[in-house]
Amino acid sequence: MRRGRIVRDVRGRYSLPGVDEARRVANRVNGVLAEDSAAQVYGWKLKHPPPSPCVMVPRNRKLTPERRAGARVRYRDVDPIRVRSGCTDPVETVMWCAARMPFDEALAIADSALRCHDVTVEELRKVALRMPARYREKCLRVARHADGRATNPFESVLRSIALEVAGLHVVPQVWISKIGQPDLVDERLRLVLEADSFEWHGNRFALRKDCERYNAFVVGGWLVLRFTWEHVMLQPEYVRRVLIAAVALLDRQPQRRALEAPRAARSA
């Protein structure tokens, strides 16, 4: 300690210099990182960074206020088999995020875990069924809707809002003819949702290409709705209102019903 080769986290527990704060907090309480803190360690993308380290400790653990300081402590018995590198394992991490966090934040984490191939949909659904009864429905909802095709939390959060709109069923990253691959698509309504970031349109060439692509969608009979990061992250009610209005508009268009009639006949 005098030479700075180790640092003391709490009496009897030490870390190497440079270890991140979350791991030092977990070491201080002799626990494991959980929920969004574990997701961050795995490199998954989050809607928001963790407000403080989230640590899981056994139910009977006695912690002084000094040791709990700066941490969100979860008292749950931890199966050593379900621990990886000082964190709850990937499937447990996603499920406890689903249990404890808002749906949009949990969906973004689940999408990222699938995108990184750290979990599978089958694993998520299996573990969701084993979750405590008070959390089970929330976990099953995340497991049902998680999709590794989502490219980032921005898109995942937009999809979470769309999932709350009756009559709307969007799927991420679907190719439409030879036009392109929008962020979210409802093929029944012929509706495209785009999560438009400023960085994506950082030069005139990118802006021109996107304009051409949007025009092609519209000429091809698709309604295109575009939302900024501020809309999705800060004004979800605005996004929801627009989506509800769009569904009402598209469902009452006579020409759309005429287009869908032959498809329905073929399906029958």
In terms of topology, how is this protein built?
Elements: E1 7-10, E2 13-15, H1 21-28, E3 32-33, H2 35-41, E4 54-57, H3 65-68, E5 72-75, E6 83-84, E7 87-88, H4 90-100, H5 103-115, H6 121-128, H7 133-145, H8 153-162, E8 171-172, E9 184-186, E10 191-196, H9 204-219, E11 223-228, H10 229-234, H11 236-251, H12 254-267
Parallel strand pairs: 4-5, 10-11
Antiparallel strand pairs: 1-2, 3-4, 6-7, 8-9, 9-10
Helix pairs in contact: 2-4, 4-5, 4-6, 4-7, 5-7, 5-8, 6-7
Structure, explained:
It is elongated and about 70 Å long. The strands form 4 sheets. A 4-stranded mixed β-sheet has the order 8-9-10-11, with helices on both faces. Strands 3-4-5 form a 3-stranded mixed β-sheet. Strands 1-2 form a two-stranded antiparallel ribbon. The protein contains 12 helices and 11 strands. The termini are far apart. The protein has 268 residues and is α+β, with helices and mostly antiparallel strands. The mean pLDDT is 86. Helix 4 (90-100) packs antiparallel against helix 5 (103-115), helix 4 packs across helix 7 (133-145) and helix 5 crosses helix 7 (133-145). The longest helix has 16 residues, at 204-219. It has a domain at 150-268: VSR Endonuclease (Endonuclease, Chain A, 3-Layer(aba) Sandwich), CATH 3.40.960.
Question: Short summary of the structure?
Answer:
With 268 residues, the protein is an alpha+beta fold. The protein is built from 12 helices and 11 strands.
